[in-house]
Amino acid sequence: MAHLPRGVHPATPGPGQESVWDYPRPPRLEPSTRHLVVVFGGEVVAETRGGYRVLETSHPPQYYFPPEDISAGALREAAGGRTVCEWKGEAEYFDVHGGGGVASRSAWSYPSPTAPFAPLAGYVAFYAAPMDRCEVDGELVTPQPGGFYGGWITSHVVGPFKGESGSRNW
């Protein structure tokens, strides 16, 4: 288990669950065969069983979709620049389009990720909060708290999670 910040008391995982406090730092990339679905504007904008997930201490998994499993026209490059992740590299952002609606800067990708994350090149992750719904194996996702991070919380992971009140310095 990771070194715990003062006052953090991880939940004990039950059968079939993972604790985000057992995830590594630096993060780990692994393939995912889970059925991942993103719905926006009443339309399925992304669906795959061939994604990746990134696991990082204190964060619920971030799921990445292969570009061929994202609906044509669902993504348009967003205005407003890029950000840098110390582990994955420079991220670009997309506005998500579906059903006549637009969710600004609601998806991101690493066009040229660092070597450990090279398989993510061109794959896209979605923030769950602005979407109508995101699912992992049919289970509705809860967005990672705080609005900045893009993890997807399901019944398969226990926290507490980075982004919750009081987690700023974790």
Tell me what the structure shows.
The protein has 170 residues and is mainly beta. The protein has a domain at 34-127 and 144-151: Metal Binding Protein, Guanine Nucleotide Exchange Factor, Chain A, CATH 2.170.150.40. The protein is built from no helices and 16 strands. It has strands at 18-19, 28-32, 36-40, 43-48, 51-55, 62-65, 75-77, 83-85, 89-98, 101-109, 124-126, 133-136, 139-140, 142-143, 152-153, 157-158. The strands form four sheets. Strands 2, 5, 6, 7, 8, 9, 10 and 11 form an eight-stranded antiparallel β-sheet that branches. It starts with 17 loop residues before the first strand and ends in a 12-residue tail after the last strand. The mean pLDDT is 95.
> How many beta-strand runs?
16
CATH superfamily of the domain at 34-127 and 144-151: Domain of unknown function (DUF427)
Number of helices: 0
Shape: globular
Q: How much beta, percentage-wise?
A: 35-45%
Largest beta-sheet details: 8 strands, antiparallel
Distance between the ends: 14 Å
- Second-tier CATH architecture of the domain at 34-127 and 144-151: Beta Complex
Radius of gyration: 15 Å
Low-confidence runs of at least 5 consecutive residues: none
The CATH class of the domain at 34-127 and 144-151: Mainly Beta
Secondary structure category: mainly beta
Q: Averaging pLDDT over every residue, what do you get?
A: 95
Oligomeric state, counting identical vs distinct chains: single chain
CATH fold title of the domain at 34-127 and 144-151: Metal Binding Protein, Guanine Nucleotide Exchange Factor, Chain A
